[in-house]
Design a protein that fits this description.
With 377 residues, this protein is α+β, with helices and mostly antiparallel strands. It contains eleven helices and ten strands. The strands form three sheets. Strands 3, 4, 5, 6, 7 and 8 form a six-stranded antiparallel sheet that branches. A two-stranded antiparallel ribbon has the order 1-9.
Length: 377
């Protein structure tokens, strides 16, 4: 199943290395003529300096590892009964209705409470601290609000208003709110319970694109299998490339790694700015709250992997004389361009150049070749 283009796949590989990085995985320079590198076809080939980037100060591939004997761990892609049930439960939750509990006046853990609230810092409301029209439905115990908010609502009475004295966490993610004392003025509008519909053929026919519960289960199973196969393929790509990089040897240019590291950091800073936040806050929300220092260390590791990965794949392409005909290029490039919002090949080539697109497509083709060789154990 060949559905992972290099630019998309590069991001997946980096994620597998525990670092989500921004930016396109494409090479910045046009593809070079690789017919003069002298790479032999046998595994463990010595490549010499010409297998590197071809410029002074660039990382060079000294010896290509044995790419014909790579082994990777097989992954089970068959959905479990627990996974299928969880998917159905989630689906039914989406059709659940909130019904006011008659006669109940005191909030308990697990209740779904509709409330109006207004947060005040130093007596003044702040952006995002007020419920909207119609109130807010909050499940007590869900942990959606800051610590103490839901806990203090337990035992409170329907129809009454309360002041909750709280404080934002030190690492809340908003410099204007981090660690600040806050008072939430809260009014309890309703105490509700969630009614989840029963899974029947009638429900399925009225709400879903299936004619029976059994057909729905089959559809869920197939969708889960497709998802797991995609995850397995991503992991196989990263495992194969990791194994090949580790089996190869390089003359490393620290200057080149630092330049690539800076590009990765800059790309993430740009994404953070697009969200209107700084890099530290971006890391909190999108990278499990790692520190800027740890992020920069990971960026250096990622830069090293990116550069080496590009070199070993190019060397395999040379060793195996992997090329692409004009017809194949046109077909693959047209299939790719829609993913990047282009409606014509001319626009696509104007944005990235034909050389770069071809380089990426050959990279894809080479990775497919390596995936085909790899043995699952």
């Amino acid at each position: 199943m060949r559905n992972r283009k290099r630019w998309q796949w590069t991001a997946a590989f980096i994620l597998s290395m525990a670092l989500a990085v921004g930016g396109c995985g494409k090479k910045e320079e046009p593809v070079q003529d690789k017919t003069q590198t002298g790479v032999e076809e046998n595994s463990g080939t010595e490549t010499g300096e010409e297998a590197g980037a071809g410029t002074e100060g660039a990382t060079k591939l000294l010896a290509l590892g044995d790419y014909k004997s790579i082994q990777v761990q097989a992954m089970d892609t068959e959905p479990t009964e627990e996974e299928e049930q969880r998917e159905m439960d989630t689906l039914l939750e989406g059709y659940a209705e909130l019904v006011e509990v008659e006669g109940k006046t005191v909030i308990e853990e697990g209740d779904v409470v509709n409330l109006d609230f207004r947060g005040l810092i130093d007596g003044e409301p702040f952006e995002g601290g007020t419920s909207g029209e119609g109130g807010y439905d909050l499940t007590i115990g869900s942990g959606k609000f800051i610590k103490g908010f839901e806990e203090q609502l337990v035992g409170k009475e329907l129809g009454k208003s309360y002041d909750l004295d709280l404080a934002f966490p030190e690492n809340y993610g908003n410099p204007e709110l981090n660690g600040k004392p806050v008072v939430f003025q809260v009014t309890i509008n309703k105490i509700q319970e969630k009614i989840v519909p029963e899974l029947t053929d009638t429900f399925v026919q009225e709400n879903l694109e299936y004619d029976s519960v059994e057909a729905l289960k089959t559809g869920i199973r197939e969708e889960l299998r497709t998802q797991k196969e995609a995850v397995a393929l991503d992991k196989k790509y990263s495992d194969v490339l990791t194994a090949l990089v580790e089996a190869s040897s390089f003359e490393v240019s620290q200057a080149e790694i630092e330049a690539e590291k800076s590009r990765i950091i800059s790309s993430n800073e740009t994404m953070a700015a697009a969200y209107g936040i700084d890099l530290e806050t971006y890391l909190l929300y999108f990278m499990n709250g790692i520190s800027v220092e740890e992020f920069e260390r990971q960026c250096e590791t990622t830069a090293d992997i990116r550069i080496k990965a590009s070199l070993v794949v190019e060397a395999v392409a040379e060793a195996e004389a992997i090329t692409m005909s004009d017809q194949e290029y046109t077909q693959e490039a047209e299939a790719m361009m829609g993913q990047y919002g282009f409606t014509s090949l001319e626009e696509f080539e104007a944005a990235y150049t034909k050389e770069v697109i071809l380089d990426n497509l050959i990279y894809d083709k080479t990775m497919d070749f390596l995936i085909g060789l790899a043995k699952e154990v």
